From TrEMBL:
This is Ubiquinone biosynthesis protein COQ4 homolog, mitochondrial. Zn(2+) binds at H166, D167, H170, E182. Belongs to the COQ4 family. Lyase that catalyzes the C1-decarboxylation of 4-hydroxy-3-methoxy-5-(all-trans-polyprenyl)benzoic acid into 2-methoxy-6-(all-trans-polyprenyl)phenol during ubiquinone biosynthesis. GO terms for cellular component: extrinsic component of mitochondrial inner membrane. It is a peripheral membrane protein. Component of a multi-subunit COQ enzyme complex, composed of at least COQ3, COQ4, COQ5, COQ6, COQ7 and COQ9. InterPro entries: Coq4, Coq4_euk. The lineage of its organism: Eukaryota, Metazoa, Chordata, Craniata, Vertebrata.
Length: 271
């Protein structure tokens, strides 16, 4: 089933995913709560509980059918994640660094990254390895969808921040962007955030793995990801923009994240 089978009013809302932008994107990195009458922030689409439920069902089915439908994964996360977002927000507020992030509302976008400076950082530093990850995988932080269906301005920012640090988690965890790497990151995120979207991805993602990759996940990567997701400090409470020069080893130790059990090259070659 696809999102096209949703009622017309919800199809209109779903199409808005590709057209409504963040009016709150002030300059390079700002955020504003002024979304106009009836809107909590720029790009916000008000929905009632029934609409949210239908969006959740339709987007969930579409995402299960095609995990690379990031727009549907985004809708699923926004329509099911309220309680988890509350807990994440509270964890951020309990940390001085996380509190600063909630107050200042930084954005991780190409327009906010000093690519020249990051490329001059030493190998092994967060900024250099993150930039290498973006280049090698031909991805950009600008591809992350803007939040639209979260009916709380502060929680909407928490969800946006989660999306924009996702590629940083790949870097921190040493995971590639193939299906095995994505599932391992989802297992970490499920344990770390409790977001239903992540739990769903962690539960159903393995069904798309080859026998060899499934063996690696269940025997090695999965237990490592769950263990570290549960015990590590809140990954949303790190002001990464102030940490580009810090070594990955040091940041992993600070967050209580063990080094990955398999090398990146091995994970990429596994079929």
């Amino acid at each position: 089933m696809s999102v096209v089978f949703l009622p017309r009013v919800l199809r209109i809302s779903a199409r808005a995913l590709g057209t409504a932008g963040w009016a709150g994107h002030r300059g390079c990195s700002g955020w504003t709560s002024d979304g106009g009458p009836g809107h909590l922030y720029g790009g916000h689409i008000p929905t009632n509980p029934v609409q949210k439920a239908l969006l959740a069902v339709g987007s969930g089915m579409a995402a299960l059918q095609n995990p690379y439908r990031h727009d549907m994964v985004a809708v699923l996360g926004e329509t099911t994640g309220h309680l988890a977002l509350l807990r994440l927000r509270d964890r951020m507020k309990s940390s001085p660094e996380g509190h600063s992030i909630l107050k200042e509302r930084p954005r991780i976008r190409l327009s906010t990254l000093d690519l020249t400076e990051m490329s001059s950082l030493p190998d092994g530093s967060l900024g250099r390895e993150y930039l290498r990850f973006l280049k090698e995988n031909r991805v950009t932080p600008d591809s992350r969808a803007d939040v639209k269906f979260v009916d709380d301005e502060e929680l909407a920012y928490v969800m946006q921040r989660y999306r924009e640090v996702h590629d940083l988690l790949h870097t921190l965890l040493g995971m590639p962007t193939n299906m095995l790497g994505e599932v391992a990151v989802k297992w970490f995120e499920a344990a770390q955030t409790g977001l239903p979207m992540c739990i769903l991805g962690a539960a159903f993602g393995p069904l798309r793995l080859s026998a060899r990759r499934l063996q690696l996940l269940t025997a090695s990567l999965g237990p490592w990801a769950l263990r570290n997701g549960r015990r590590s400090n809140c990954v949303l409470s790190i002001y990464y923009e102030h940490r580009w020069g810090q070594s990955l080893t040091s940041l992993r130790e600070e967050l209580c994240i063990e080094p990955p059990p398999l090398s990146l090259s091995t994970l990429r070659k596994t079929t």
